[in-house]
C-alpha cells in the first residue's frame, strides 16, 4: 500500500492548468525520480504534496489519511519532509542553531520549557550528528547567512534529516553545487534509501543522477503525468526522449 498517494491532484492559475489530474502512489522503500522539461509542473506538484500550494481539485493521501486541507507544518509533523527553502533558514543564527531548532521541533511536544535546560546538550549532540552527515560539522559556528550556496543546500538537507520524516522530498538537491560537493548529497540520499521504511521523491534534471539513484521514474509534460515505470523502460519511451532532449538543450543553454 502506498504511504503517499495523490488522486486527481490539480492546480489552476487562472486559465492555466499547472498540474493536471495527477494520480500516483509512492511505496515505502522506493526512490522515485520526477523528470520533465522546464515548466512541466514537477516543482508545482511537489508544492501541492508538501502543502506550499492549495490544490484546486483532487486529494493528497498520507498514511491512509486525507491531508489535502492541512497546512505544510502539520504535514511535516506527520512525517512528510521536504527540504527547506533557503528563505526558511534563520540567517542570523549559526548553522548548528538552525539544526538544533529542527531537532527541537521534532521532539515537540515532548520537550517543555522546564526540561529544555537538561535536554540542551542532547539537542546539540543530535544537531552535530546531522551536520556531520552532510559534511558541515566544521561550519557549525558559522552564521547561515554567510554560507556558500552549496553549503546552504547541505544545511537544508540537514534540517530535513533532523525532522526524521517518513517521506523525503528532494527538489534538485545538487543544484548550484560544485562538482566536489555533489557526491556528499548523493551518497547521503543513497544512505537514506537503504532504510526500507523510508520513501524518497526526487525532482532532478541530471539524468546521470536519476540513473544512479532511481528505482522508478515518472515524467511530467505540461502538467500531465505522461510516463511511469522502471528507469530503463521509461527512458526508452519517445515522449521521454523528447523531454530529455529538451532538458539537455536547457542545460547547454545555461552552460
Give the fraction of residues assigned to helices: 40-55%
Secondary-structure content class: alpha/beta
Terminal Cα span: 42 Å
SSE pattern, N- to C-terminal: EEEHEEHEHHHEHEHEEHH
What is the number of beta strands?
Answer: 10
Outline, from the CA principal axes?
A: globular
Q: Identify the quaternary structure here.
A: single chain
Model regions low in confidence, pLDDT < 50 over at least 5 residues: 249-255
Question: Within the largest sheet, what's the order of strands?
Answer: 6-7-8-3-9-10
Q: What name does CATH use for the topology of the domain at 1-72 and 202-255? A: Rossmann fold
- What is the highest CATH level, the class of the domain at 1-72 and 202-255? Alpha Beta
User: Can you say what the CATH homologous superfamily of the domain at 1-72 and 202-255 is?
Assistant: P-loop containing nucleotide triphosphate hydrolases
The main β sheet shows up as: 6 strands, mixed
Radius of gyration: 19 Å
Number of helices: 9
- Tell me the strand percentage band: 15-25%
- Name the average pLDDT: 87
CATH architecture grouping of the domain at 1-72 and 202-255: 3-Layer(aba) Sandwich
Written description of the protein model:
With 255 residues, the protein is of the alpha/beta class. Mean pLDDT is 87; it is low at 249-255. The protein has a domain at 1-72 and 202-255: 3-Layer(aba) Sandwich (Rossmann fold), CATH 3.40.50.300. The chain contains nine helices and ten strands. The longest helix is centred in the middle third of the chain and has 18 residues, at 116-133. The protein has helices at 42-50, 72-78, 95-107, 116-133, 149-163, 182-193, 207-213, 231-235, 238-253; strands at 4-13, 16-26, 31-35, 57-62, 65-66, 80-82, 167-171, 199-203, 216-221, 224-229. The strands form two sheets. Strands 6-7-8-3-9-10 form a six-stranded mixed sheet, with helices on both faces. Helix 3 (95-107) packs across helix 4 (116-133), helix 3 runs parallel beside helix 5 and helix 4 packs across helix 5. 40% of the residues lie in helices and 23% in strands.
